[in-house]
Design goal:
Blueprint lengths: L1 H13 L9 E12 L2 H10 L4 E6 L3 E4 L13 E10 L2 E9 L5 E22 L10 E11 L3 E12 L1
Antiparallel strand pairs: 1-6, 2-3, 2-4, 4-5, 5-6, 6-7, 7-8
Length: 162
């Protein structure tokens, strides 16, 4: 792993025009939970006290910047979300998605300073038709070595808005 990391850093230093993200060693701990009802989905999300993120409902899509908004029934069922929260010294990334079986998968990711992955951070443009919200989403990506593919992305965790 260190050979790959050193080679990447050399390439990044020699090719500054490419603006490659900084790469470092790290890892993550994932906690998965299956949820069966729409009401429980929202209750679990509230208990995680997310600071920032985005929500996708049947009839609404929105970012939130300072805690979850007040739930409005007109939005319909929550379909998906990404968020983050800070607990002590750790950042907890939250991913919620429908599982195709009538329920939802709720996964939380805790960043670990050490691990069997390489990780970097990047920004993606946010969908923002009114230009009145955040313009970029920030993610931390984890790359794990695979014997056939080399380093492949294992997971991307939402870590806030720019």
């Amino acid at each position: 792993m260190m050979d790959i990391l050193d080679a990447y850093r050399r390439v990044a230093a020699e090719n500054k025009d490419y603006d490659l993200p900084a790469l470092r060693q790290g890892g993550y701990k994932a906690n998965h939970e299956t949820i069966d009802t729409p009401q429980t989905v929202w209750e679990k999300l509230v208990l995680l006290t997310p600071r920032q993120g985005w929500l996708l409902f049947q009839s609404a899509q929105m970012p939130f910047l300072d805690g979850l908004p007040e739930r409005n029934p007109i939005w319909g069922v929550l379909l998906a979300a990404e968020a983050y929260t800070q607990r002590a010294d750790e950042v907890l990334s939250i991913a919620l998605e429908e599982n195709g079986l009538g329920g939802w998968n709720l996964t939380t990711y805790t960043h670990l300073g050490e691990g069997d992955c390489l990780c970097d951070e990047l920004e993606q443009l946010a969908y923002n038709p009114g230009n009145d919200g955040p313009r970029k989403l920030k993610y931390r990506r984890y790359w794990r070595h695979d014997e056939r593919q080399g380093y492949a992305q294992a997971v991307a965790c939402f870590i806030g808005f720019e």
